[in-house]
Amino acid sequence: MKILVMGPPGAGKGSQSQKLIQDYDLSHISTGEMFRKSYERGEDLGKKAMAFINEGNLVSDKITNEIVRKRLMKPDASRCFLLDGYPRTVTQAKALDVMLSEMNSKLTAVINIVVDTDIILERMVGRRVCKACGHTYHLKFKPPQKQDVCDQCGGELYQRKDDQIDSVRNRLSIYESKTKPIIDYYKGRGVLVNINGMQSFDAVYRDIKKALRDLT
Ligand code: ADP
Ligand code: AMP
Known about the structure:
Layout: E1 2-6, H1 13-24, E2 27-30, H2 31-40, H3 44-54, H4 61-72, H5 75-79, E3 81-84, H6 90-102, E4 109-114, H7 117-125, E5 127-130, E6 136-138, E7 157-158, H8 165-179, H9 181-186, E8 192-196, H10 201-215
Parallel strand pairs: 1-3, 1-4, 2-3, 4-8
Antiparallel strand pairs: 5-6, 5-7
Helix pairs in contact: 1-10, 2-3, 4-6, 7-8
Bound molecules: adenosine-5'-diphosphate (ADP) and adenosine monophosphate.
């Protein structure tokens, strides 16, 4: 299974992806997470990327395509994977097509999670992430058992710089102009499914699983 999960920032891509990778045994390829990890390791790539990320801008197509290409070449990813947050531009979507055709492969499903802007804003400003394991919480919708502490690993929770309101607004406007056009790019291939993301975590997941059953 080769799944792409897309939608605006804060739609719930990461939350749903976490469940999908466990249930379907998929390699999780999150470009945002790869950039953040690279930054934490003190790498030049991460430092360069984080300057764009903190302002809510996209990292260049060239850098992003390159890290995805390298990741897809690893043995675990050639079988089954879930792409989360990539592609984010039509240029990236075209580059992904080239990579997949080189692997004699194609996407099984493109899951597009749809959420209104007012809900997105509330979700993003309340998001908290574990510094150690990357697990995601929400102050109101998914609070940790102990304040600022990760239920999974005991790590410290923090607010991403790009989840502050100015960055969020920029990210939403970039989503509209650069990322949304990808939906049209995948139309007509028989793999695109729109999922209502304005439901409980479990209801969204139920709808995604149903869509995957219908497609496979
Ligand atoms: P994305 O990966 O698309 O940016 P996340 O999965 O990190 O989004 O979700 C953004 C925030 O919204 C997180 O704090 C998460 O806990 C919360 N969230 C995600 N899905 C839901 C949902 N269905 N209902 C309520 N809150 C949600
Ligand atoms: P995410 O963790 O998916 O919310 O991504 C966080 C940030 O990383 C984004 O706002 C971008 O700045 C950057 N990023 C992640 N994926 C991509 C991508 N495919 N193309 C460009 N920038 C990206």
